Amino acid sequence: VAASLANLLEQFRPRIYRWARIVLGHHHDAQDVTQEVLLRLVRAAGTDNEPTRPEAWLRRVTYNAAIDRIRQKRPAALPAEPALRAANRSTADASAIGNQLREQIVAALARVSESQRLVLCAKVFDGMTFAQIAEQMDLAVPTVKTHYLRAVRALRTLLAEHGWEDTNDGMP
Amino acid sequence: MECRDVEPLWADWLGGELSAEQTEQVEGHLNRCPACRREADSLRRTLKLVQSLDAEPPTRAAISTSTRRGMSLLRIAAVIVFSFAAGFAARELTGGASPSEPSPQQPSQPITVASAPHWQRQLAQLARQSGGQISFGQLLVALAPSQPKQSAAD
Known about the structure:
Helices cover about 70% and strands about 0% of the residues of chain A. Chain A is mainly α. Chain A is globular.
């Protein structure tokens, strides 16, 4: 059991770090969250709380831990509107994302429902198909598709409320 | 294809899961319908923003919630060992009674007196066996035993 758990930790460690970094955008914070999540997995192993679907469990725990970290440390973190207005001209270049824009996108991501967020992240960042997500999250495929579309539309609304101009400017 | 036919396909279209034939039909409609074209562009732009989170962050910390360095492997181990040592000490000092206000780092249930020497032995054995070449997973498994009935919920 210990050997398989060790393998599990090694297998998922890079992915946990990446998920954490997507939200936090900062190496050291992502490291902290990675280790926190791995410890939680170790503590859950062999108990009634041991996850039957480790990847889905780890994705949920990691994103939640990363978002909780932002809420605890910077609860009022909201970028100024100019950052979002500037984003209208820079979305074509993903590498040009600024700190304030990143913060605003994450803040919006934190406000959609957990199911919507997890489906969206699994699709966008892990490249999973709707069928794969449905199986992993024990949901029906149409439900997964609904979560995905609602997540994107909710994010659009939330970002627009904070100044993102949804126009064609800057689109390739 | 009409607008009402496109609505159920937005998720598949945005997620790149339409068949070639469906894609052709949807794109054909988008070329004819300005409203659906606007919706399509808007969804794509929003998704692109989300995707941008996975890009390499800018040089300055984006969302730096911590000014200290991340916890090293050694610090993780120290936290675990300390939590058990604290539980052990508390039990010794209170003559076996559990502390009334357990700290967050303490195990959810008090450890037994006998388990502390066990951990010392295990650590010593681990140090001998590893020769400084131990994986992160092995260390965590060795140092952090499963704790009964601890909540894994968020």
